[in-house]
């Protein structure tokens, strides 16, 4: 009878140990599954003398990244996706003040879904993915680190070559070189934010720009780019701005170099040196893009232009004239 009790005790002890080990292994399996799910959406990005990470937010090859990863004025970037697949990406929209750059590549990638970052809570699990110390470039391996949301606060001063000021999500997950522009992901595998360089040297933590700060503008840029391209035929009676623009290195937009006296631009208050960054709802980075956007408006049309003057953005409405008026 004693032997039976001893055998039963050993059996129960072994079962308990196996159960405890299974419980211990479960979190590990969760992290492995998370990496398998998110890594195919994460890429290496390089442009404008800088490099970092990015993440696909639309399966048709639209990558969200940061100017700290690909430069503040670059039109094309190099994108390296898992599987050592390299692409030349075209910048289809940017807002440097939000550290927001959207790149289009000719590929189909799994896309990550935006989380509601306003619901982020201190202590919730967070993951950081990206090209940590060149992991994608050198090892074809997307790095992952695990932590929690350790702070939610406002940053009012630009630091370390970054652009953004405003609300941030701090994470205790490791943020290493080349991971700026990469995703901060919650336990549901959704995008909480985009990692930024703008963190304190005195803190062993990284921060991310919340997804809700970026989402609407990102989706608008993608939607505008997806609209069918029409033939470049100048409409009859196409409107005239009355200003000459030029592309300038390290300037995101078209700089006005001449304003016709008495023309629509002058009447609207535009000045030499103003930088046009947006026509109506379309962001413009090149002369070709600006010409395409303006060609859609006829004489007499009111066009809202977003300009940058003395480091500040403002909207100006111009009533276009006829080319034969002046």
Would you write up a description of this structure?
By secondary structure, the chain is an alpha+beta fold. It has two domains: 40-225, Thrombin, subunit H, CATH 2.40.10.120; 239-322, Roll (Pdz3 Domain), CATH 2.30.42. 23% of the residues lie in helices and 37% in strands. The protein contains six helices and 20 strands. The chain has helices spanning 2-38, 67-70, 135-139, 211-226, 264-267, 287-294; strands spanning 42-47, 50-58, 62-65, 76-81, 85-95, 100-104, 125-130, 143-155, 166-171, 183-186, 191-196, 206-210, 239-240, 243-247, 254-259, 275-279, 282-283, 302-309, 312-319, 321-322. The strands form four sheets. A six-stranded antiparallel barrel has the order 1-2-3-6-5-4. It has a six-stranded antiparallel barrel with strand order 7-8-9-12-11-10. Strands 14, 15, 16, 17, 18 and 19 form a six-stranded antiparallel sheet that branches. A hairpin with a 3-residue loop joins strand 4 and strand 5 (85-95). Mean pLDDT is 85; it is low at 7-15, 18-22 and 231-236.
Fraction of residues in helix: 10-25%
How many domain units? Answer: 2
Strand content: 35-45%
Identify the CATH architecture of the largest domain: Beta Barrel
Adjacency order of strands in the biggest sheet: 1-2-3-6-5-4
Q: Give the overall pLDDT as a whole number.
A: 85
Query: What's the Cα radius of gyration?
Result: 25 Å
Q: Which fold name is given in CATH as the topology of the largest domain? A: Thrombin, subunit H
CATH class of the largest domain: Mainly Beta
């Amino acid at each position: 009878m004693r032997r039976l009790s001893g055998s039963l005790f050993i059996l129960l002890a072994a079962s308990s140990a196996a159960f405890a080990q299974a419980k211990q292994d479960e979190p590990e399996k969760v992290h492995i599954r998370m990496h398998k799910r998110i890594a195919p959406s994460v890429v290496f990005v390089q442009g404008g003398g800088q490099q970092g990470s990015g993440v696909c937010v639309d399966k048709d090859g639209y990558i969200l990244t940061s100017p700290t990863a690909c430069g503040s004025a670059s039109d094309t970037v190099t994108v390296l996706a898992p599987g050592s697949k390299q692409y030349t990406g075209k910048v289809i929209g940017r807002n440097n003040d939000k550290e927001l750059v959207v790149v289009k590549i000719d590929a189909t990638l799994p896309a990550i879904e935006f989380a509601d970052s306003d619901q982020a809570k201190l202590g919730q699990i967070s993951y950081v993915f990206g090209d940590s110390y060149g992991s994608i470039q050198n090892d074809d391996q997307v790095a992952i680190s695990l932590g929690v949301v350790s702070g939610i606060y406002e940053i009012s001063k630009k630091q370390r070559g970054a652009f953004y000021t405003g609300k941030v999500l701090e994470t205790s997950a490791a943020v290493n070189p080349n991971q700026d522009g990469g995703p901060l992901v919650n336990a549901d595998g959704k995008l909480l934010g985009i990692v930024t360089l703008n963190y304190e040297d005195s803190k062993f933590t990284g921060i991310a720009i919340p997804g809700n700060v970026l989402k609407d503008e990102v989706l608008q840029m993608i939607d505008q780019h997806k609209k069918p391209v029409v033939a470049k035929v100048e409409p009859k009676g196409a409107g005239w701005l009355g200003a000459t623009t030029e592309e300038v290195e390290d300037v995101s937009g078209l700089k006005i170099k001449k304003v016709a006296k008495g023309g629509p631009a002058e009447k609207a208050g535009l000045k030499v040196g103003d930088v046009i960054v947006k026509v109506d709802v379309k962001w413009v980075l090149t002369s070709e893009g600006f010409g395409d956007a303006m060609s859609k408006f006829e004489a007499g049309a009111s066009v809202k232009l977003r300009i940058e003057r003395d480091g500040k953005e403002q909207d100006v409405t111009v009533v276009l004239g006829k080319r034969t008026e002046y």
